[in-house]
Amino acid sequence: MLEFLRKNAALSSLLFLAWVPLLWRLALYWQSNAQYQYGWLVAPAVAYLLWQRWLGRPEPQAGRHALAGTLLVCSLILFAPLWLVLAANTDWRPFCWILALAVISLTLSLIELKGGRAWSLHFGWPLLLIATAIPWLSFVEGFVVKNLMFAVADVTVFLLDLLGVPARQVGILIEVRGGLLGVEEACSGVRSLQAALTAALLLGELYRLSTKRRLALVGVGLGAAIFFNIIRALLLTLAASGGGSAAVDRWHDPAGFSILTACLVLLWIVAARWQSEEPLELSGKLSPAFRLRPLGLWLGSLWLGLVLTGTELWYRSADHLAGEALHVRWPKTASGFGFDDIPEETAAEMGSDIGQSAHWTGREGHLWLMFYFYWPPGSDTSQLLARQHRPEVCLPAVGTTMTARRSPVTIRKNGESIVFRAYTFERYGQPLQVYYTRWEQRPLAGGTRSGGRSLQHDRLQSVWERRRRFGQQLVEVAIAGLSDAAAADALLADRLPELLYIKQPDPARL
After folding, report:
1. CB–CB of 400/429 below 8 Å?
2. H helical segments located in 274-377
3. Angle value at C-alpha 318, between 313 and 321, nearest 5 degrees
4. Which of 242, 285, 413, 474 has a CB 3.0–4.6 Å from the CB of 373, allowing a cystine?
5. How far apart (Å, rounded) are the C-alpha atoms in residues 198 and 456?
């Protein structure tokens, strides 16, 4: 295959300029989100499977392939707006999916133009496997977290009851005599499902299973992931009940690795038993010359090069701009004030340079909780990390249940409008009024910094304003025990200006 690509420089150039940017974009997720770190293994696995397919490629088919040519041109054209938008919106998952599908479509079109429909069908399976390393759409991920994790926790508590171990379900957490197991200890999230799904699809291709058997193997993988998640949660809760949090810390990693290994071994055994008996036929022939002339391929490479270069120049011209920074003035003289330690696992997951948490009792007697995180400018992952941590995503992981998403609350400060998204949660039967804002450290005077318009509008506006790699700040406030949401909103609007201030940028940097 390498010799073939070397002799077809125009083809190699076009594939390089399409795949490297896509993999680099996906790598930002693999780097910043532990849930998708398996993507580092998927890319080389797909490359190996393509090489295996190359060894057994069928004879090329002659004929006209107008549809493939049309898809190739459309994919090249679509690449430009997708890359331009993603440069300012690293975390926009639907656009990431569309970009991946455009690159896959471009590749399959080139394959069909080279070897006909037989080639595109032959190489299609391993190419599509790269989709397993693309982050799930947020609503799909949220559905799995909300339903599957609750179900696993519910089944685990049921099994503990059968074993005579006192336990109580608190959202997706499990409370036993040794304490409350956090999502890290009794985790049953989407990570194991993703690993099982990816492993099933890769093994199905490695063993050349039929389509029906591949789908069946996926079903086996998903079922095994759920089953072993229940076993893991059960083992950890039993350890917590007998030895407390120290026992959980001791058994957390061994249990996780053992359960994952058992799931993968099960999939491997099933795939090996279902292996196709068709021998791998090696082909020593190369196909005839491209039906798409090399000039067209070079023009496609030139187009992608211009898109990548133009996008970089468009945003780089504004990378030097500095904006107002949001700062917290902690009420250290308030009753019961104290800083809270952020667990190492949580701090590592947040990936922020600054992370602070504090609690105090307000003048009205209500408990206040406040979190502040800061990601510096200049990094492509800052925006991604800041946007993926939201109350509706993170708070259910600590046993709270969202009961309402309310109208935003706007706070005026130094001529700026800081818009806080408002939620009502419930924990242990007590209401929790939660407010959240993400502040982007970009130049803006007298405008609305966050939450004023739809997220989609803000994303598109960021392209026009060349907003990329600006510093990100996250502020989250919770007022406990206040059931009247309107009263909580008024209290926030009254107190928050005392807690936040905006530091103007150095005019010399503007």
Report:
1. no
2. 294-316, 344-350
3. 155
4. 474
5. 30
